[in-house]
Design a protein that fits this description.
By secondary structure, this protein is mainly β. It is built from 3 helices and 28 strands. The chain has one domain: Methylamine Dehydrogenase, Chain H, CATH 2.130.10.
Length: about 375
């Protein structure tokens, strides 16, 4: 079912700077009495320089950001998105990059999918995208590598759909070679897989913690490790799950507190977009209020804090802000799902990620990029 995401139709998106200004002005002029102290985001469109659909985004900091998408396309900015440079990986022109993980302006990793086993690959650049080295090329029939994430610049994990009841996941300890950790993974449920919708079906935190969101089976689950992938536990979530539904995306703001999102790709069941929250490291999950979007939530992210911040709002409010991305709209919550607000005029987005609360990016169809700042 991961493959179903590869054939979603492009949706034409057209915005103007005047429209964005009007929306921003309207949001900030809303009654303070009605909204209390809620701090609404500012949305700014950026020129990506490409019309290719963008599926994943990874900020290093407020200046350096990488994105990736269809037809072997990658993008990088070193000035916060004022200018973007796009490129195409040689030999990957007909692949889709469903994952990008950035380390610096020079170093980044890409994860590709395609229609044949060997199209699932991991690439790395160390010269800002001028050249790319293929680190992994799948040979296992039925494997479908949906997403990957890193604890450090050289320690990461890549997650695949199950094959014959086993998740053939990979891990790197040196940022160069990838080894199977299939024997470490919990048994898969019948039909269990993940979604390659935004490179956020796996999330890492700290030096050893990771969580993987799944669907496709009778129950949507979270697979969790606290020792860097040596051992795993599986926990049930209340997100709807079926052959076209499940948990798509997960993020944690610390070792205990996290949020998972998902829904149903079936166009006949568009009102299943849901999020659930955990306060015990993913062992138990409680549905939040329903986000005001349709379809499935492809990606979500905390407006996390990277580096020191002395403003009280960073500690008291913004670390709990979560933003969602999906083709049926986008939304944000200031309180981890109790209250939701629509991001007006934003549709067709696949992924969202933050470097700081004031520097986040939404990417999606037709090369559309929004910068989002709280």
């Amino acid at each position: 079912m991961s493959r179903a995401l590869g054939v979603l139709r492009n949706s034409a998106i057209g915005f103007t700077f005047a429209f964005v200004f009007a929306i921003t002005l309207a949001l900030h002029s809303l009654s303070g009495a009605a909204l209390g102290q809620t701090r609404f985001p500012k949305l700014t469109p950026q020129n990506s320089g490409t019309s290719e659909g963008l599926i994943a985004v990874s900020p290093v900091n407020a200046k350096v950001v990488w994105a990736a998408g269809r037809h072997g396309t990658f993008l990088v900015t070193t000035d916060g998105g004022n200018t973007w440079r796009s490129g195409q990986v040689n030999g990957a022109e007909w692949l889709q990059f469903r994952g990008v993980r950035a380390v610096s302006a020079n170093v980044a990793y890409l994860l590709s999918i395609g229609n044949a086993p060997g199209n699932f690959r991991i690439y790395k650049t160390e010269d800002g995208g001028s050249t790319w080295t293929m680190q992994f090329r799948n040979e296992l029939a039925g494997a479908f590598y949906d997403c990957f994430a890193f604890w450090t610049p050289t320690r990461g994990i890549a997650h695949s759909d199950s094959v014959n009841g086993v998740f053939p996941d990979l891990r790197t300890e040196d940022g160069t070679t990838w080894q199977s950790i299939a024997n470490n993974m919990p048994p898969a449920l019948p039909g269990e897989f993940s979604f390659s919708s935004s490179d956020t079906c796996v999330a890492t935190q700290g030096q050893e913690n990771a969580w993987i969101a799944t669907g496709g089976a009778a129950i949507a689950r979270i697979l969790a490790t606290t020792d860097g992938g040596d051992t795993w536990n599986a926990y049930d979530t209340p997100i709807v799950s079926s052959s076209s539904a499940g948990a798509f995306t997960v993020d944690f703001r610390d070792a205990s507190n996290g949020i998972v999102g998902g829904g149903d790709l079936d166009p006949g069941d568009p009102n299943q977009a849901r999020t659930a929250a955990s306060t015990d490291g993913g062992q138990t999950w409680t549905l939040t209020s329903a986000p005001p979007v349709t379809g499935a939530i492809f990606g979500l992210s905390y407006a996390r804090q990277i580096g020191p911040c002395n403003r009280p709002i960073c500690q008291e409010t913004l670390r709990y802000v979560v933003v969602t991305a999906n083709t049926g709209g986008a939304a944000w919550t200031p309180d981890e799902g109790t209250t939701w607000y629509v991001l007006p005029g934003v549709t067709g987005e696949w992924a969202v990620a933050f470097a700081t609360p004031a520097a986040g990016w939404l990417v999606g169809e037709n090369g559309v990029i929004w910068k989002i700042a709280f």
